[in-house]
Structure formats: structure tokens, C-alpha cells
Amino acid sequence: MAGSGINGRSTMHVMGYSIEGRYQLHKTTYLTAELAESSSPDFRNTPAQRPNKLGLSDKANSAYALHLYSYLPRMNLRVEGLYKYTGANFQSFSGFQSNASQKAWYVKADQSFFSRQLRMAVSIRSTDFSNPFVVQQYNSNTVFKSFMATFRRSAGHY
Q: What's the pTM?
């Protein structure tokens, strides 16, 4: 629960775990999967409620991600994709969580041409936020599309 800290400010005790695995689908293709869960006090109520026990029963305290990587050597093509979900109560140690659940995905392809002098990459990414804790329904969906071309030629090829 919360305790008294420096200058009378309260502290918040957060605990959690994360497990990640990698599965080799093919010589040049693999999938990583991560599952995480956190537990912290619920400050939406006054006084704050004690944290739920860990146990995957509360999806709002959970997060998971699937990431696929593949390289096709004959086509000199790299493809990658990601799907990630974080619950509204999930507390991350590597990013700020705004009490909104998040679903995010992306797909990216990267290919080289002309003896790897020209590289082209295209990607599409979407992030969907939703906050179930406010009276007004709040949703935000963002889609990013990008295209990049890089041309490199060494000085000796003139």
C-alpha cells in the first residue's frame, strides 16, 4: 500500500513480473512473445484500494506482445510485425502508463536493390487508446504510414 516518504509525500508500491520467450519458426524467421502483469494500488477510489493479487484474472493489470521477424534471403527482404496490448491498470517500469488501455500493431518491410545500393522501407503503425475509467468515453486511434528510400554509392564506383 502507500506509505509516507520524504517531506510527507506518499509512495506507491508496485510489483509485477514479465516473461518473454522466443520461438524459432524457420532458419530466418522467429517469433517473440511476452506476457506481463503488475499490481499497484487503485487510486480511482478514495481511499486507495489495496492492489489486486497477481494471477492473470484481471486483464486490466496485464500486458502482452507478439513480435514476428523474418528475413527472406533470395529476395533480400526483411519483414517484421508486432501486436501489443496493455491494460488500463498495467504499470510499466519502462514507459508512462496513463490509465488507458492500449492496443498497438505495426508491419514493416525493408528491401534492398542494385547490390544493396538502394534500400526501400515501408511501414504502417496503429495505436488505439481507450480509457474506461472516465464518465465520458475516451478513445484515440492514430495510424502512421511511412516510406523511406536510401541510396548509397561508394566513391569508387564513378
A: 0.71
